[in-house]
Design goal:
alpha+beta; Nuclear Transport Factor 2, Chain: A; 3 helices; about 20% helix
Length: about 130
């Protein structure tokens, strides 16, 4: 499945996940496969950034095989602009399961929207994967 980035991102630009780091220091290295997200929250943030940038390949690669959809398309008109982390349970460096409660803010055709989700994550083979919403 070819990745069709909606908004190419410079490594020196602010990361879409709003961590306070640059894209190159934050989610960019996960998107390029240079490192794996060390925690469930870092994976969630990197997946949000992948949605914001239209990186379908990364979204599919980080989706657990037991819940991964057979096809994934993104709305090219949807622009993500803010991520709020409401809370998390587990998902740390030494854990194998976790949840992240977040709100993703976007705009489509001039209409603001937000998606709140409490996502489940699992760590297998040293890598975190998204399982789905609670």
């Amino acid at each position: 499945m070819a990745s069709e980035a909606l908004a190419p991102r410079s490594d020196t630009a602010r990361c879409p996940c709003l961590s306070g780091s640059t894209y190159g220091e934050c989610c960019g290295r996960y998107h390029r496969g240079e490192a794996n997200a060390p925690t469930a929250e870092r994976l969630m943030r990197s997946r949000y950034s992948a949605f914001a940038l239209g990186d379908i390949d990364y979204l599919v690669a980080t989706w657990h095989s037991s819940t991964r959809p057979t096809a994934l398309t993104l709305d090219a008109d949807q622009r993500f602009y803010r991520l709020d982390i409401a809370g998390a349970t587990g998902g740390g460096l030494l854990e194998t399961t976790g949840t992240v409660d977040f709100v993703a803010h976007s705009v489509t055709a001039g209409v603001a929207d937000q998606q709140r989700e409490n996502s489940r994550f699992v760590k297998e083979g040293g890598r975190w994967f998204y399982l789905g919403a609670l």
